[in-house]
Amino acid sequence: MSSIFSSIISGEIPCHRVWEDDDHLAFLDIRPVRPGHCLVIPKREVSYIFDMDPHEYAALWAAVRVVETKIRNATKCSRVVVSVIGWEVPHVHVHLIPTSDISDFQFPGPCDLEAPPLEELASRIQQAQ
User: Fold this and answer.
1) Active site residue: 24, 37, 91, 93, which one?
2) Host domain of residue 22
3) Is residue 99 classed as helix, strand or coil in its secondary structure?
4) Model confidence over 83-97: pLDDT tens digits?
5) CATH code, domain with 34
6) How many domains, the chain?
7) Residue (of 63, 42, 62) closest to 52 by Cα position
8) Is the dihedral of CA 61, 66, 69, 75 positive or negative?
9) pTM for the full model?
10) For residue 14, is pLDDT > 90?
11) pLDDT at position 106, please?
12) Sheet of strand 94-99, all strands in order from the earlier edge strand to the far edge
């Protein structure tokens, strides 16, 4: 099943394109956190960022860097927050959100769930294949 982003790439669904190359597309988010909030996506549909092959993964981050510079210059913000959540749409996408202060972006706080002690969790991650 094709994602909404594949429909945007094909032109079936309109978007406000800000940049593209042969393999990537960047466009304004329709539900922005801040003015200038963009998404950068690969044109090849891949659901999970870590399933991308190493060349595609590196190329995506090069595209993100190009768009970040354009956003920073256009909005005159201090920093662009980068976020890859990976659950909203089953098509890799990187959020770029212009900010001038830490309060411009609400990062989730610490979880209150019972979790294993940090030492135990660190050990489990270290030993995982």
Assistant:
1) 93
2) 4-127
3) strand
4) 999 888 999 999 999
5) 3.30.428.10
6) 1
7) 42
8) negative
9) 0.89
10) yes
11) 80
12) 17-20, 24-28, 38-42, 94-99, 79-83
Q: Which residues contact 64 (CB under 8 A, 6 or more apart)?
A: 40, 82, 94, 96
- Asked if 65 and 42 touch (Cβ cutoff 8 Å), the reply is no
**Residue 43: what residue type?**
K
Q: Which of 4, 87, 83 is nearest to 38 (CA)?
A: 83
Is 93 considered catalytic here? Answer: yes
Please give the structure tokens belonging to residue 119. Answer: 């030492």
- Residue 107 clears pLDDT 80, i.e. is over it: no
Residue 86 Rama label (left phi>0; alpha psi -120 to 50; beta): left
The SS3 call for residue 48 is coil
Q: Alpha helix (H) ranges present in 11-79?
A: 54-75
Paired tokens of 105: 């972006």
**Residue 39 identity:** L
Rounded to whole angstroms, how far apart are CA atoms 63 and 19? 9
**Dist. CA 101–CA 106, nearest whole Å:** 11
Query: At which residue do the structure tokens 């595209």 appear?
Result: 63
